[in-house]
Amino acid sequence: MASPSTSATTTAATTVATPAAATVASPFYEDDGEIVLKVSHDFMKFPLGFVVDAGGSVTKVVYRSKKDYKAGQLIKPSEHGLLRLRYFKMSDIFQIIDFLKDHCDVISTGKGSGYEQATWHMTGVTAQHFKAKLEEEFEIKTSLCSEMMALQNSLKLMPELQLGFYGMNMESHLFAAKRVRAIAQAVSKFVELGDTTLENYDVSRILDGNGVSEDLEKLVISQSGPPEMEGAIFELMISSDDAKWAEKYLGSLTNELVVPSILTLFGSAAVTLLVSKDYKLKGVDFTSVAGKTLTGLSEELCGEKDFEKFMEMASRGDLNKVTTLVGDLKNEKHTEDDWYSWFPEEYPAFELGKLSSVNVKGKGTYSKEDLAAGILNVQVASIAKTALHNCLIHKVDHAYFAGSLMKYEVARKMISKHFLSDCFMLAMEGGPILKPFFIRQPGFLVAVGVWAANVEVTKNLEKK
């Protein structure tokens, strides 16, 4: 059966602030369509005043605005420096230079400025398309640094910048808890088949000869009867207060990144990284089926080129309209108590199954919004599963997600539902309880690492 499906047609999801998050004021606020990050005044000491993170699908510009600054000085006194984030669509990238000339508070960086020997850092594969023009217009030299190096800088700065995480999505937790309880009840009803039990067909036994490690074998759902549960998962099964359980086992006690951990960065492609105790990054998984794939499917299948509108469509869609559910497979006249009847009717059997006419009940009836939700759900299911498996492989219990997609609540909700549903299933067989977290305002994440590198360039030049 497919991974659990979700319905995106819900009101605003309930979130629960973790203990640490509840005591630290957010460093972000919105202003005129931009996100503003409050930072220390020392962090603003960068004469050029902007960095570009130009990805394959969207470009993030972090800059010092003329709204807030004049010649590097705040117009209105403030306890904080102010960094602004603006997104640019791929079709608008050649407007970036004009935007910066009109709106960025750039201190002189050309001849006689004292910074003419500087090479300023930018990042992103698309930056090469306007790099030369950028250098010409601002009389500067630039180099395109690795996103991974910038990200490593940012992760080290997370405590100082207080980037923090989005609150826990309780709807996702409740969904996964309900799902695993239903599965546990169904599994408990499996019976012997003549002289042979389903235990003889345990998936882990089939894979014995293929080099599967003992640790992973222990985590395979055997379908041989009710598992012996204990600890956190047993508490979940009998809990009458799911919010309290979630706060105890899924909450974070810190606004800092817990290391070692797994971090998935979802951009035009997606990379899964192991973050070591000293914040060094090691790529452990990669897929080119990610953001660029999602935008292509949006345009070709939903007819929507604007990604913001696609995500709005997905948030309104109903996954049950495009997903083949267990109830869709049942024959109402078949009343025998067999294993099909043990699963809830709303349990997903085949993702996007109703797009096909090859069904007992024929092709489903669905809207473009439903299709958008289905496309997004299939896409994020793969990164949720990849993150979870890498947590198991590398024996860490914190999984972090970042990238522009994570700013959308519907994406975070879907990822959480898949991640927690799979996690709870594995926990029934002794697996650990793993924690998913989403870094707030992810458009800043790579860019502030580049900004920090340029602050260091500035300080080094001023020492000479």
From TrEMBL:
Q: What GO MF annotations does this protein's record show?
A: ATP binding; phosphatase activity
Q: Which UniProt keywords apply?
A: ATP-binding, Coenzyme A biosynthesis, Nucleotide-binding
Q: Give the superkingdom in one word.
A: Eukaryota
Which Pfam families does this UniProt record tie to the protein?
Fumble (PF03630)
Q: Which GO terms of the cellular component aspect does the record hold?
A: cytosol; nucleus
Q: Which Gene3D superfamilies match?
A: 3.30.420.40, 3.30.420.510
Which processes are annotated in GO (biological process)?
coenzyme A biosynthetic process
- Name of protein: Uncharacterized protein
Species of the source: Helobdella robusta (Californian leech)
